[in-house]
Input
Amino acid sequence: MSSLNYPTAFIDSIDHQINVLQLSDLHITELTQGKTLATNYDQLSCCQRFEKLLDQALKEPIRCDLILVTGDLVSKVCPDIYDYIFTVLENTNIPFACVAGNHDVTDELGAHLPFDQRTFLAKPADARLLSRHVIETANWQLLLIDSAIPGKVAGEVSTSDINWLSDQLTNCEKPALIALHHHVTPMHSSWIDQHIAENADMFWQKLSQFANLRVIISGHTHQEHVKHQHGVTVYTTPSTCYQFKPLEDDFTMDIDARPGYRWLQLGNNGQVASWVKRMDT
Ligand SMILES: [Fe+2]
Ligand SMILES: [Fe+2]
Output
């Protein structure tokens, strides 16, 4: 077991560059961890895909300084699943932080029914999921907020969160990265954009004035996307389990897209580089 304290509040590295591994939308429903005879990722459970991708990422020739998990850790709110995920992350001995997604505060009943016939049941968030949390590095500030609303698929960046972010960006001049679950720029996919973070217009109105806001990362869209807006680079990231097809107006799974994760290199000069990796075949 790791001796790391959770949640991490400060990290540094020998070159003051921070390499962040973003994992998102694990959607674990049952504990089916461990070795499998499966030869193709389609035969792996969400639990096995999470373990396989984490193992793949940490075997890459890149130092991992921080793991950020941007919500939807589970598809069924259950303390045992969070205990398992946190144990796996602690065992990496790498600092990590997790925020909630809609599925972390909502149980969706009737998943076999059309979307508009399902019932959404509010659930309390696991206490380890962070809200308004700062991780500071030598050259960056990482600002984590909780955009999930219990009982709803759509999220929200609340006015109080926007004010908190404004205060952080005012009080610390370091380049900033904001991490949250829901996307804050449209994906041009009608059904996904119905579930964009509410209040996104006010979010941009208030925060685009800060030159030190450089990067926003989110999950929720189950697809890779990058957009430059108001001087900010906005990334969304594939799910570690299953993907949605880009630019579709109706719900469509992307069965050809493999599970993946994102790397972000936060440079010691305030620049960022980022790319997505997919599960090895
Ligand atoms: Fe998700
Ligand atoms: Fe989500």
Summary: Residues 143 and 165 are 7 Å apart (CA to CA). The two ends are 30 Å apart (CA to CA).
